[in-house]
Amino acid sequence: MVVTQARVDLPSAEATRALGAALADVLAAGDLVILTGDLGAGKTTFTQGLGAALGVRGQVASPTFIVAREHPPGPRRDGSLGPGLVHVDAYRLGGLGELDALDLDASLEESVTVVEWGRGLAEALADDRLEIELVRPRGGDVDLEHPEAGVRHATLRGVGDRWAGVDLQALADAVAGGAERG
Ligand SMILES: Nc1ncnc2c1ncn2[C@@H]1O[C@H](COP(=O)(O)OP(=O)(O)O)[C@@H](O)[C@H]1O
Ligand SMILES: [Mg+2]
C-alpha cells in the first residue's frame, strides 16, 4: 500500500482554514478525507476552509446532531464548478452500514467526503484516502479553556495509489509559508 506523509504547523485558526483551502486544489469528486483530532483540535475549521475554497453551497458547521450534511457544488473563485462536499460526523454513526443507509442524494462519487471522527470506521469506504490528524498540545502551560490556545499541527497521510503522485509536503510547506507571511 502506497503511503505519502507530510506535516505542517498550524499557528492559528486561519492556518487551519488555509490547509483546507489548499487541499481544495487537489481534492476531486470521489475523494475521501478522514479527520482525526480531539474536540477543539480544528476539524470543523479545516472543513470550513475546504468548503469555502471549493465554493460549495451552504454553511459548513459542526455536524453535531446531524450525521451528514450535503453541500451542493457552487462556483469556485475562478468561476469553475467543482465537486460537492459531504460532511459526516462519524461520532454519531454506529457503523459504515449506517452511512450507506443515509441514502445521500449526491453519491459519494460526485463529492469530496470529509468524515470527522472517521478513524477506524471510514477506511472501508475507499481504498484510497487522505487521513489528516489534527493535534492540539495539552499540558504544559496550554490553557485549554481558551479555544485558540496551543499551537496545533497536522499530519497528512495519503493512502493508496490515488495519493502516490501527490506532493503533500509541498502543499504543507505552501500553507506554512503563507502562515509565516501572515
Ligand atoms: N490552528 C489553530 N490555532 C488556534 N486555534 C484554532 C486552530 N484551529 C482551530 N482553532 C480554533 O479552535 C476552536 C475549535 O475548532 P473546531 O474546528 O470547532 O474543532 P473541532 O471540530 O475539531 O472540534 C475554534 O475556536 C477555532 O477557531
Ligand atoms: Mg467539529
UniProtKB/TrEMBL annotation:
One example GO MF annotation: ATP binding
Species of origin: Xylanimonas ulmi
Identification of the protein by name: tRNA threonylcarbamoyladenosine biosynthesis protein TsaE
Function (record text): Required for the formation of a threonylcarbamoyl group on adenosine at position 37 (t(6)A37) in tRNAs that read codons beginning with adenine. Is involved in the transfer of the threonylcarbamoyl moiety of threonylcarbamoyl-AMP (TC-AMP) to the N6 group of A37, together with TsaD and TsaB. TsaE seems to play an indirect role in the t(6)A biosynthesis pathway, possibly in regulating the core enzymatic function of TsaD.
InterPro entries given in the database record: P-loop_NTPase (IPR027417), T6A_TsaE (IPR003442)
One Pfam assignment: TsaE
Family: Belongs to the TsaE family.
Xref: PANTHER family: TRNA THREONYLCARBAMOYLADENOSINE BIOSYNTHESIS PROTEIN TSAE
Any one GO cellular component localisation term in the record: cytoplasm
Any one biological process term the GO annotation gives: tRNA threonylcarbamoyladenosine modification
Main localisation: cytoplasm
Protein's cellular compartments: Cytoplasm
